[in-house]
Fold:
Amino acid sequence: MDSILKVFQRPDFLAQLVVHIELSVIALLIGITVAMPVALLVYRSRLWSAVAINTGNIGRAVPSLAILALVFPLLGFGFAPSLVALTLLAIPPILINASTGLRQVNPQIIDAARGMGLSNGQVLGHIQLPIAAPVIFAGIRTSAVQVVASATLATFIGGGGLGELIVLGFQRNELAIQLGGSLAVAILAIITEVGFGLLERAFTPKGLLVTSNHRSK
Amino acid sequence: MSSLVASLALQNLGPKVLDWNWISRNFSHEIIPAIIGHIYLSFVSVTIALVISLPTGIIVSRYRKAYPPVTFITGLLFSIPSLAFFALLVTVPGVGLGPRAVIIALVAYSLLVLIRNVVAGMDSVPEETKDAARGMGLTSRQILFKVELPLALPVIVAGIRIATVTIIGIATIGAYISGGGLGELIFTGISRNFPTRIIVGAVLATLLAVLADLSLLAIERYLRPWARTRRT
Structure:
């Protein structure tokens, strides 16, 4: 146990933790800025949203190691190729959830809002996005957890991150480093999962929260 | 940006990137066994996970209080990154390197999705249908096997689909702890800087996942004829 705690004090531990978080945060942010406009463009059309959702589904089926490994012969070794791969992994869950979430908004509510004189932009900003927010956030959460987990694999294509410690532990046969790295990654992933769960709740409009609480009782 | 990516791609994509000779030379003694190993790992894991999840899901759907803790624990297991999970399992006495550790992790990853879908499937059976079955004199065991499970089957298969696709992807990483499968080609390809291996392993793993996804989706649709006419 003591030796594992020592791992957390290693200078490279902190450095790799920072790289891990950098990779994950940047990939997620780029993923959101790519997926959200696409979802906003396609959700009105049944055909295009089906195309987006099915592409997203196929994208989700691609193993994360496969994406990282395929990026390597094309773009080479290092941080930037890893970032490209992680961004590709971040997009599908957000795209799927944003498209389905926006489509699921009850058309009667939109009609009512139009009847009250709201413009298209207002309907989107004040009605559709808030109602779809929980579903969109669920997508962002899935994406974030997946990106944090997959960033562990960036070490295989020279991207750094906490996976570096796990691999180092294996190579040197040092159990403490292997366990310390693994525990740190696991904790980071669980924090991401729980943290985004709280965000998801925070972004659920109060009106929706009441009904969903009601239902669960 | 895209032109930069394209030029980088062209620069690296020499004629040697995909070495067809290597593929034909190693097809029967390296590529085929890797595919079979991968299917074996995934199939065994999903089967074991199903054997655990079906009774657990049925019990949990009856004793509702047990549902939140079960999803909490399986949710925690699900969110542990696979490389970390493998690295932790390998240190457990009696597990060690090899397919056993990989299968344990893959089973753990499947539990959340499978149990959740078994419960959702059981919940989707209308109360009136069960009442009608009871009124016809069926015992609760008969209701479970002849009414509830058949009606819950499409939702359960939907869970099997998600679990299988997830597991086929994660199984590639299992090669790092000597689990075998298509990840073996990817890892040796990276360490020997031999792109053909990487591409063959990655593309086959992707194809396997997409194929499993589509065929289980077809089964799901077939089991749910009443939904076929509705939009998907």
Remarks:
- Residues 50 and 190 of chain A are 32 Å apart (CA to CA).
- Confidence is low (pLDDT under 50) at residues 211-217 of chain A.
- Chain A touches chain B at residues 57-58, 60-67, 69-70, 72-76, 84, 145, 148-150, 152-153, 156-157, 163, 166, 169-170, 175, 178-179, 181-183, 185-186, 189-190, 192-193 (CB under 8 Å).
- The radius of gyration of chain A is 20 Å.
